[in-house]
Amino acid sequence: MNGMMEQQASHQTSDLVFSELASAKAHQADNFLASLETASPYLHSGWRKAVQQAYGHQAGCLVARDGSQSEAAVIGVLPYVHFKRPFAATRLISQPFCDFSGPAATTPAIAAALVQQLHRNQPLALEIRYGQAETTALASQKVRMVTALPDSSEALLASYKPKLRSQIKKASKNGLTAEVRTDQQAVQLFYQVYSINMKRLGSPPHSLAWFEAILQHYPQGQAVIGLVWFEQQVVGAGLVLLQGQQAVIPWASTLADYNHLAPNMLLYWTLQAHLADHGVRFFDMGRSTPNEGTYRFKKQWGAEPVALDWQLLQPNQGQVSHLLSADEAGPSRLRALAEKSWQRLPLTLANSLGARIRRYIAL
Length: 363
Prior knowledge:
By secondary structure, this protein is α+β, with helices and mostly antiparallel strands. Helix content is about 40%, strand content about 25%.
């Protein structure tokens, strides 16, 4: 950086005014995020409102304003949550239960200043979930799979290889149908598939109240649910969040007994077609481990890996720890035992226990 650029960067940060944004003024941060077009959908106030409502974790939002301007418009935001766990120290997380939720700002310097300010303000460990690693040294870690979408579903279908188009058509020929909805009944139908699949995987599910809170607090059309039907049965479901030109799919599930009908193919096609027709240009298919099954599934849709970087800053220290690694992909013997035990639980008990446990699992 030359001397003039350094002076400009210094001027940008020296004029910043930081403040905690009151919940009643959350729309100011949301309006700013909407202006960025590619800001993470997890930064919307609907996410932290759902965290508070469903799981009771206290949330906040640090904003940066340009003190050199009389209007002092928001030019950077950093939402965060006080994540409390039993028998463990409370940690600030730049949003739990999601892949990428770091600061959003008009310049990288302002984004960095937000993190530094929050770290100074709070005597707690601070976890920032950056959606893109700054160094290729982290390339072997967990990645998010991102695909670019054209401006219409017709162009999207035409961009696919013949094999992929054939798989989508196969699902329809097998008698599957799909739709995109935003109503509360759709949440319940989604949860039926999701909770059964989580039990099959041996993992505690989120509560139904969590998903209901997400649809309640996100604006109409910014949280949608894709449903795949076989006759009168929902056999596949996914929840997608939209923000400007970017969308993410935090959860997608299918019923294993119907997987031979290819419901996952129809689900992902239906959702991507909906997004392309609604102005979304970047679709984040979620966290994966390179070269594993979910990675390869997403790759066939044209998704490319972007290395994630979850950074942990200890209080009163400058040292940064990088939390994600490919080594986490391999389950330990204890984890395998826990999964088998969970799979044996009755579904109603698994859902009830999951709702109590899941609030303490930030992944």
